[in-house]
Amino acid sequence: MKKSIFIASALVLMGMAACSSSKSESKDSDTTLAAVEDEIVVEEDSLARIFKDEAKRSEVATDSTWAVTESGLKYIVVKEGTGKSPKATDEVTVHYRGQLTTGFEFDSSYNRGEPATFPLNRVIAGWTEGLQLMKEGGKTIFYIPYQLGYGEEGAGPQIPPCSDLIFEVELLKVNE
Questions:
Q1: Paired residues of 116 in beta bridges
Q2: Which pLDDT tens digit goes with each residue over 73-93?
Q3: What does pTM read for this prediction?
Q4: Cβ neighbours of residue 169 under 8 Å, at least 6 residues apart?
Q5: Phi/psi of residue 159, each to 5°?
Q6: Which of the residues are catalytic?
């Protein structure tokens, strides 16, 4: 969150600098803006770093190792469920938290205080594939490459184009 505020503040300052400079100072302003842009460093969140650590890769995902599917979906099983696994045509009820690899949280059913219910075949491909690996009562963290997420278009102002996503998902119920 601090990183998001820092980036937003830097962008506001750059905009203010650009708006307040006169035309005769535009060359100096461009140099100043370039210097500020060079100072902005977007770091990866700790979860994103875990999924890049090949030493933690395994054939079987656990709470301390991650696995990857043929499509490129990476996942960590935080808690193994004991109930039913959904099919792509099922409706599911979940609690979830979605973030960018920078740690910026763009959506959370936890913050809204109520789980979400939706047809599994009407969400991004990474969700459709990933939730079918789960069982009711389970909790999994998914690293979804942009090709299985919102692609080259992104999704509104909060999810830029070509953004890999991280979702923490708790499968509460499979509603057939």
A1: 94
A2: 999 999 999 999 999 999 999
A3: 0.74
A4: 94, 95, 96, 127, 130, 131, 134, 139, 140, 141, 142
A5: -120, 100
A6: 96, 106-107, 124, 150, 167
